[in-house]
Amino acid sequence: MSTKSYISNLSAGRNWAVIGIFFYLFLVVLSFILNSESWSSDLNLEKNYLGPFKDGNHILGTDGLGRDVLAGILNGAKISFLISIATSFFSVMIGLTLGYLSGYIGNERIKSHPFLISIYLFLCCLWIFYSWSSGSWFLFLIILVCSIFVIHFVSYKFNLLKANVYLPLDDIVMKLIEFSRSISGIFILIFCLAIFEGRSIWNVIFVITIVRWQSITRFIRAELLKIKNVEYIKNAEALGIPSFKILQRHLLPNIYRPLLTIMVYGFAVTIMLEATISYIGIGLPLETVSWGTMLSESRSYFQAWWLAIFPGLMIFFVTMSLRKLVDTTEDNWTYL
Amino acid sequence: MSAFVKLLQSILLFVALSISIFFLKNLLPNDPVEQSLGIYSENEFDDRAYSDSEYRKEAIKLGLDKPKFYFGFIPSDWSAEYQKLLIPQHKKIAHALISRGLKWEDIDLYLKAGQESENKSAIMALNSGLLQGTNIPNNLDFGPNYTELLLNIYANKKRSFYYPVFQWHGIDNQYHHWIKTCIDLKNNLSNIDNQPAGPKISSALKWTLSITLPTLFLSFFFGIFLGFQRVISKSKIWDYLQNILDLFHSLPLFWFATLLVIFFTTDDYGQFTNIFPSIHSMSFSTGLGIFNNLKYLLLPILCYILLNAGYISALMTSSLRDQLSKPFILTAQLKGLTKKQIIKQHGLKNAMFPIVTLFTSAIPASFAGSLILEIIFNIPGVGRLLYRSILLADWNIGLPVLLLLSAITIISYWVADIIYAKIDPKSSVAKA
Amino acid sequence: MNPLKFLSFLLLFIIISCSSEQKKAKTDTIKILLPMDPERLNPVYDPRSIGREVFQYLHLPLADYHPEKLKLYPILIEEIPTLKVDEKGSFYKLNFKKEATWNDGTPITTKDYEFTIKSVLHPETVIKSWKPYIRKINDLEIIDDHSCKVYVDDTYMLSLEITCTPYLLPFHSYPKGMDIMKLSLQEIKELTDESNPELAEFINEFNDPKNYKGSLGNGPYTLKDWVTDQKVSLEKTPEFWGAESKDNPFLAANIDKIEFVILADELAAVTAFKDGQLDVIKGLSAANFKQLNAGYPEAEYLTSPSTRLYYLALNNKDKLLKDPSIRKALAALTNVESMIDNIEFGYGVALTGPIHPDQGAYNERLSSQIYNPEKAREILKSAGWKDTNSDGTIDKMVDGVQEELVLDILITGSDLGKKIALLLQDETKKLGIGINIVPKDIRRMRKENLYNYNFDIAALAATVDLAPIDPYRRWHSDNIDAKGNNVSGYNSSAADSLINLIRETRNIEERERISEEFHEIVYNDQPVIFLYAPTYKVAINKNFKGTVTSKRPGYLANTFKVL
Fold this sequence. Notes:
By secondary structure, chain A is mainly alpha-helical. In chain A, 71% of the residues lie in helices and 1% in strands.
C-alpha cells in the first residue's frame, strides 16, 4: 500500500493526532531555535514558585529555583525527542540485526565445524580474562576480532575443516531474549539506579534501549519468519542472488510498514519511560530540565500545581497523538 | 519440548541469574563489612574511625577471605597473597601497581610502608596519584629502606606476559555460602533487622498479590467485555467509552496516581471529593474484617485498571474484527448460524490468541507497575521490599524475592504455552 | 455471569467499603510520623538518631540535657556530680536513685552500670561506637548498690558527659554476665584482640543479634508492637517508678499510647495529617510546612532552633583551593540569605562559622553579610585570574601549568543538595568559574573522595551536640588523615593552639571567650563555606498541646498533654 493511500485511510479521529504530532515537532524546532537548554537552566531564586500568568516574563510560572516552566516544556520536548530518536535508532538496529539472524537465517543456515566454534569460544573467554585483569579491553577486542578473521580465512582458504554442523542462531537469540525478559524490569532499573554515577543523556538512552530491544527483536523476527518461506524469496535464493540484495530488495520493503508502526508506538512508550526514569532520578544531568524532572520536582511542593499539570499534559498529549496515529482498529472490515 | 527439559532450562536460568547477581552486587556502593561494623553515615562523618585490623577481623568473620567462586582463572603473576588483601583500598593499589610492572614482593613492601605513620602524607599523595592514573609527585622519600621500591614505581615498566591459571577452590567459597544462607528461608534472617525472611516475604507477597490479581482480572475482564461489545453492538456508547479509556492509557502512572491521592483522599478540595480513604496501611491480620483492609487498595486498583483497560479492549476489538473478516465467517453466516453462535463457536477462540500473549506478559509487568503504586500509596508489598533490600544490600531477602519474580515470569510463560495448546491444537507448541 | 450484574455488584462493593472516615478524637493515642523504620531500638547497641526518636521513651540514661534548660539534668541519679579528688585521682561520685527500677520490677543498681561499662570496653563485644569514649574512664569503684566512684582524666573536657550520659544494660538479663564482672576495668582495657576462652560464652550471648532489636527498658513506655516498615506502638509502663515525679520531663507519661507511623513519602504524610491519621509531623520540607501552616488551621505549628548545620566543604589541600582568596571568593558567591528565604521559606539562620548563633561562644561581631559578587570579582581579578584563552572560564598559571578554574561539587542527590549546587553553578558562571555537579552516594563519596582528600567541593551536613563545643575533631590538623574528621584538611597553627587551649580550660566564660577568637580565625581563613542551620519544624494536631526543644529530635512526646 502506498503512503498516500495509507494516509487517506486515516479516520477522522486521526486528524487530531496529526495536528498533535505537528505541534510537538513545532515545539522541538522552537526549542532548537530559542536555545531552550540555556533558557531552561536560567535560574533566579528570588522569583521561585510563581504561578502562571502572574509575571510577565514567566507565562507558565516558575519552579522551585525560579526556572521558567515554558522553557522547561520546550527543553523537555527537545530531550524527549532526542532520546526517543536515539533509542528507536539503536533498538531498531539491534532488532534488525538479531531479528535477521534469528528469523531469516535461523537455525539451519550457517555452518561451521565444531572445532572451529570451540576455538572461537575459547578466544572469547581469553578476551574476557585479559580485559578483566588488565583493563584495556579495547586493545584486546581488536586482537580478538583479527584472530577470528585470520583463523576463518585460513580454514576457508585451505579447506582445512569441513563445515558440517549448523549453528543454531535462532535458539541462541531466543534464549537471550528469554533470559533478559525474566530479569524483571525492576531489577534492571534498581541496579542502574545504584550503579550509574556519571550523569549524561546516554545513560537514559542505554537504560531504555535495554528495556525495549526485546520486543522489537521478537517482532521483527516474527515478521521475517512469516515471509521467509514465501515463494519469490525462495526463488531469489535459488537463483543465487546474494543475500544482501534479497535483504534490500525484498525483505525490507515488506517489513517497513509494521516496523514504522512499532517505531511510532515505541516513540510514545519511550517518552513515557523517559519521564518515569527522570522521575526516579536516574541519568539526566542535574542542570537538564525535562518533563520527568519537572514532575519529580512537583512532588516536593504540590501546592505548585502548574509544575505538575503542564508537563503531565504535554506527555499525555504527545503520547496520545502518537498512539492514535498508528491505531489500526478502524481499519478492519467485517462480515458481520 | 517436554516438560522435563523446560524444567531443566528454568533451573539453569535460576542458577545463571543467581551467579550474575552475585557478581553484580559488588558494584553497589554498599560495603558489607562497614555495614556489619555498624558504620552508618548520615551526611557527615561517623563518630568513630575504625582501624584496618578491625576491618580485617570483621571481613574474616563475614567470610570475605574465602575465594569467590568454585573455580577461578588467575593471572600467573598474582600470588596467593592477593586473596588475603581484604581492605578495598589495598586491592586497588595492588591493581595499579601490578599494571606498572611491579612484582609481588614490592607490592607487599609498599603496603607495609603505608602502615608506618611517618610516611602518611607521602603515601597518601602517592596513592591518590596511583588510583587516579594522574602523575605521581616525583620527589617523595620514604626513607632508606624503600628507595628501591620507589625506583621501581617510578620506572613504570610494562607488565610482563602472563597467562591464565586455573584454580579449583572447592565448596568453601563465598558464592556457595551466600546461596546456602539466602535459599534457606526458614532460618534465613534479614541482615537489617534480623527478622526471618520467610514471613516478611510472604506478607509482602500477600499485599502485592491483593493488588495485582484483582487488577489483572478486572482489567482483562473489562477490556474483553468492552472490546466484545464494540464489535457486537450497534450503539455508540462503547466507542465513547473506548475513547475515554484511550485517553487514560496515555497518562503516566505515577502522575495520575499522585493526582488521585491529592484530590480524592482529603477534604482539601471540598467535602464531596473525600471519597477514598487516605493512605495509611494496616497489617493484614489486624483490622476489622476484610473490607476494612481492602478499602485501602481500591484507589491503586482503580488507578491501574483505568490506565490499562483501554489497551486491552483495543486489542480485543482489533483481533476479533480480524477474525470476523476471514472468509470462513461468511461461510458460517451462509450456513445460517446466528451472530451469537458464530462468534461463540468460531470467532472468540482465535481472537483470544493475542489476548493470552498480553496476559502472560502483563503478569510480570504488573509487578513492576506495583512498585510505583506501592511507593505512592504506601502499601508494604514486594516491590518496596525488593527496592529497600537492594539499596541496603540485604541479599538474604533480595535474592529470594528476585528469584521469586523470575519464577513467576517463567511460570506465566508456561501457562501461556499450555493455553495456546488448548486453544489452537494446530499451533506448533502443541506439536512438540 | 452477566457482565452487567457483575458490574453492579462491584459498584455496591466499592460504595460499602468506601465509607468516609470519622476523625474521631482518640485521645488516648498520639500518632507520630517516622520517616523510616528504626531497625534497632537498643540505645547501647545502636545509638543512631532515627532509633533515638523512639527509644528515648523506652530507655533512660543516667542523665541527659534538659529540653528547655539545655544543661545536664539527672534522671537515674540523684544529682549531677561535681569533680572531686582523692588519693587515686579525680573522680565523680554517682548516687543512683533508690526508687529507679527496670520495667520488670528489678531495681537499677550500680551493678548495671558496671556491667554496661565493662561490656562496652571489651574488644569483642559488638558495641563499637562508644568504645573510644568509655576508654577515657580510668577506673570504677563500687561503694554499694546505689553509689559508686568513677575515676576520670580531669584534663578531658567531656569527662562529665561520658560518665553521666550512658544508657544502661540490664545486668540480670544476661545470665553469663557474671563472667565479665570478675575482671577489673584495667584488665579489660588490656585485653588484646585474641579471644579469651573463659569469656567466649558471654561474648556469644552478648553479641546475639536479637539483642539489637530491643531489650528490657526502664522508661515511662514499653514496646507493645512493632511491624517492620509500618508502625511501632508504645504503651505506658504499668507501675512506672517515676510516675510520681512532676518536674522531670523525661519521666512524664501524659498520654497512654504512642504510635509511630512509618511513612517514607512526604505527600502521604501530609495527606494523612490532614485526614487526622497523624498527630505529629516533624521534619517536613519547608515548602510543605509553610503550606500546611497556611492552609490547615486545625494544628499548631512550632519551630525551634536545631543543631544541624549545612556547609560546603572545600578541599584545602587542592592546588587551586589552598589559596584562601579563592575560597573567600567562592564564599562571596553563595547568597545564603536568599537560600533561607526562598528554599527554606525563612526557617533557618545563617552561619558564619562552626558555632551555632544560639551557642554562647558565638562571636556576634563577625558580619554575616558574606554574599558580595562584586567583591568576588575583585578578589579574582587581583589574584590574577583572567580568561586568556576565551573559552568561557578564567585561568591562571599555577606552578608553571595553566589551570582553568573549574571545580567539581559532590552532592548526595537530596533535593536540597541539588538546589544549592545549581545555585552555586549559576552564580559562578557569571564570573567565569565552571562548576560540575557530581551526584554520588554518600558511602561512595566518603570512601572514594572524602577519605583521600580527592575532591574540590562537597555539600555536607553536620550535627552539633548540645555538649560544650570541642572543635578538635573537625578543625585540628591532627585529624587530617584518612577517616579523620577534618573534612577540609584545615591546617592552621593559630587555630590548633586555640583548640588545645579550649580543651584544657575548665572555666566556662574563659572557654567561650577563646572560642570566639577561634571563630574569628576560622571566619578569616574560610576553610569551608558555611551555609545555614535550619530550624526544627513540628506540626501538632490541636487535640494535643506540645512543646518543641532544640534537643534532638525536637520534641518530647511524653510531655504532650491531651486537650
